[in-house]
Write a structure and sequence with these properties.
By secondary structure, this protein is an alpha/beta fold. It folds into two domains: about 130 residues, Rossmann fold (3-Layer(aba) Sandwich); about 140 residues, 3-Layer(aba) Sandwich (Cytidine Deaminase, domain 2), CATH 3.40.140.80. Helices cover about 35% and strands about 15% of the residues. The strands form three sheets. Strands 5-12-10-8-6-7 form a six-stranded mixed beta sheet, with helices on both faces. Strands 2-1-3-4 form a four-stranded parallel beta sheet. Helix 9 packs parallel to helix 10 and helix 10 runs parallel beside helix 11. It starts with a helix and ends in a 5-residue tail after the last strand. The N terminus is likely disordered.
Amino acid sequence: MSADEATVAEGPLALVCGGGSLPLAVADHVLARGRRVLLFPVRGAAKPEDYAGREHTWVHLGQFGTLARVARPLGCTEIVLIGGLTRPSLWGLRPDLLTLKILPRIAKAFLGGDNHLLSNIAKLVEEQGFRLRGAHEVAPEILAPHGSLGRLVPDAEDLANVGLGLDYLASAGRFDIGQAAVVAGRHIVAVEAAEGTDGMLARVATLRATGRIRAPRGVLVKAPKPQQDRRFDLPSIGPTTVAAAAKAGLSGIVVIAGETVVAEPDALREAADRAGLFVFGASGPAA
């Protein structure tokens, strides 16, 4: 059996789509390999106009029964969760009948950080006969390469900041609290919390404008958490990240190559070059 025949034989892939451009980019990469994709955009996260002209089924996050009823008869056994999602409240899930049956276990999964929640949800989904895959597993093209993603590269001072940022993330990530930090003047000036990367960068811009951050330049460093389930919530960057980093007065962005998702890579390169920022894929601690 050829590689293409094996791809088709896997059956269709269900894509649970949050916000942003990544879900459709992943869908296009999978389709290019000859595999059918079933799109399940999430209400309140995905934009209806993005799915016009594409076959899709709208769902709320808690409507796993709806997904199963559509996907199972078509021979689908694999699911990918991709795109921007805001962690809902338990009752904001709008559970259907199937989800209601396992709601007590879902409630228990909510008592922890995002990685804890997603890993436990994965177990529940797999008990229903589906396998959860990482988006990078079915579309490796979305991962950041080694080296520069634009024309600029970090200098010695930038790399010193990066080293400090990676050390911090390796320690703080054990507590499942964030994947990003801003380092300026060899000092950690901001860490990512519930507001996300763009929110943290907006905070840095405000702190700089009010004189609370006086060190020039600085670097945004992003890395997955140690022991993170790589199927979910890998660090990601895109053109909006570059724009936010520029407003924060940073010199660039460093991510872990092969473990960071890049949205709209061509637009990201153009935005970085235009803003005079570097975007660089570095080796991880285990490399």
